[in-house]
Specification:
The complex is a heterodimer of chains A (about 100) and B (about 300).
Chain A lengths: L7 E7 L6 E8 L3 H12 L7 E6 L11 H5 L23
Antiparallel strand pairs in A: 1-2, 1-3
Chain B lengths: L2 H16 L12 H20 L1 H5 L8 H26 L5 H9 L16 H22 L5 H29 L3 H20 L11 H6 L7 H18 L10 E3 L4 E3 L5 H11 L3 H31 L1
Antiparallel strand pairs in B: 1-2
Helix pairs in contact in B: 2-4, 4-7, 6-7, 6-8, 6-10
Classes of the chains: A alpha+beta (about 100), B mainly alpha (about 300).
Bound molecules: fe (ii) ion (FE2) (2 copies).
Chain lengths: ~100, ~300
């Protein structure tokens, strides 16, 4: 019976000006404009958003969680990227 | 898969759980964890959706415009809850439609409470106060459940639930300030919904086959009996305050336990209703099947329209 199932869409919402769109979940809709309408009704019933993005779930490409350690490891050993790595002379409090 | 690798993965998985690191959709997980979640989250989704039926029954007959607007908003929220949860179920690799067809085929359950009829307006009060109250007791700890998408859906749901319980308590409290007839109506609704509300927490711990593993996986954070006790403790004073009598002669404060004692649940009734023989089981599933069938042509037409506009 699954032949007529509508495609799945991922929903992203900007809650207010100045903030990023954030993933909130997914929904089913026949096309993009219906996905936007449904996203409004499902995810913003209490003024949770001022802008909505929808993306077909099939288009999302994700990094592989099983390779997470090796993939993100190069940034772990570069402590000099953080300000706490540096010694400051006495007397300098804010820098 | 090699059993050595399997053991290693399972050990790492349990370590993550023990450290309260959330499990996300693409992470490795034991097949039984995935299956347990699909069962629990889809049952939860179905409960939200089927739960719209008993309350929907009173939307057109709400006693004032205010009550009607509130009830509409409440029932619409329940639809939203169902949708957040279907969305979470789909992250586990099952399709939404298959999940719904499983409900219609009787392969999965929904909360037994929605198999009771709503006979009077006071039932809408009793449902909001007791049924949503019991649901909240269940749902608050689920905000910390180990599966990320389920936990996030529950956070959103819990935020929305608090008005549900208040609107129900308001209905019941107002009736209790009314005429003798209105008070009797409120009391009657509570008499009918009290025990089924206690049954919402599921079988007692001794008979609950999934509880132990679910707690080890931190899907559940409390046992059924613990949650039931929390609900009784929270609800008794609310009933007393507005002059309602809960229909349990054994209900009494136990100083040494620091909890209310309460009488034995009629488990025969519970298993009968779970098994499909409650007052409204047949009607509820039929309504869901009819809704799907009646909407079929709309879904087909929308899809055909979308396809046509894609190729142009
Ligand atoms: Fe709900
Ligand atoms: Fe609710």
């Amino acid at each position: 019976m699954s032949s007529n199932e509508w495609p799945l869409w991922e929903v992203f919402i900007r809650s207010k000006q100045g903030l990023n769109h954030k993933h909130v979940g997914s929904l089913r809709a026949s096309d993009a404009s219906m996905a936007i309408q449904n996203a409004r009704d499902v995810y913003t019933r209490r003024s949770e958003g001022i802008s909505i993005w929808v993306v077909p779930s099939s288009l999302i490409i994700a990094s592989d969680p099983s390779e997470m350690d090796a993939f993100f490891e190069p940034s772990d050993d570069k402590v000099y990227r953080h300000p706490t790595f540096y010694n400051l002379p006495e007397g300098i409090e804010h820098m | 898969m090699d059993t050595l690798i399997q053991d290693k993965l399972e050990k790492e998985f349990q370590e993550k759980i023990d450290k309260d690191i959330k499990i996300e959709p693409n992470d490795w997980m034991p097949e039984s964890y995935r299956k347990t979640l699909i069962r629990q989250i889809s049952q939860h989704a179905h409960s939200e959706i089927v739960g719209m039926l008993p309350e929907g029954n009173w939307i057109t007959r709400a006693p004032s415009l205010r009550r009607k607007a509130v009830l509409l908003a409440k029932v619409q929220d329940e639809a939203g809850h169902g949708l957040y949860l279907y969305s979470a179920t789909e992250t586990l690799g099952v399709s939404r439609e298959d999940t719904i067809d499983d409900l219609h085929a009787g392969k999965v359950k929904y909360s037994s409470i929605f198999n009771y009829p709503t006979l009077t307006w006071a039932d809408i009060g009793a449902i909001g106060w007791l049924v949503d109250g019991a649901a909240i007791m269940n749902q608050v700890p689920l905000c910390r459940t180990s599966y990320g998408p389920y936990a996030r859906a529950m956070v959103k749901i819990c935020k929305e639930e608090s008005f549900h319980q208040r609107q129900g308590y308001e209905i019941i409290s107002n009736l209790m300030k009314g005429t003798e007839e209105q008070k009797a109506m409120a009391q009657d609704a509570v008499n009918r919904f009290w025990w089924p509300s206690l049954m919402m927490f599921g079988p007692s711990d001794a008979d609950s086959k999934h509880t132990e593993q679910s707690i080890r996986w931190r899907i559940k954070r409390h046992t059924n009996d613990e949650l039931r006790q929390m609900f009784v403790d929270a609800t008794v004073p609310q009933a007393e305050l507005i002059g309602l009598t809960l229909p349990d002669p054994a209900l009494a404060w136990n100083e040494s336990r620091g909890h209310y004692d309460f009488g034995d649940i009629d488990w025969d009734e519970f298993w009968q209703v779970v098994g499909g023989n409650g007052p409204c089981n047949k009607e509820r599933i039929e309504a869901r099947i009819k809704a799907k069938k009646d909407g079929e042509w709309v879904r087909e037409a929308a899809l055909a329209y979308a396809k046509k506009h894609q190729t142009n």
